[in-house]
Amino acid sequence: MRMRMSTLRISPAIKPHRRRHVVTRASGNRPLKVVEAASGRAAIYGVILGNTNWILTGVNPILQLHDPGMALVGVGCCALSAYSTLRSSELHASDDNAFNESVLLKEGRTSMLVFAFMILLCFN
Fold this sequence. Notes:
The protein is mainly α. The protein is flat and about 85 Å long.
């Protein structure tokens, strides 16, 4: 008795969505600078809100992260900084200097250092 092999072909029920690949100067040449700018803005918000809450309530930033309300504020600030940085990147796609000034790149770097120092102070 001879067995027959089936040639069953299964086509996917859901076809993958093809996205148009749009490359702007901002997304093609400086993605790390955009990420650094978003992190810098988030650090600016973190330093301002964290220190203000630390001074007013006496709760250090490490303990603030365990509070669900403050954690939600932190996530909101990160989302706001990411949105505003991407928007600024689209608006200033052709001019690097205007992008650097609009996203407060130097101030963000300073805030990242201050935030790291603030976290180190919590451990003492």
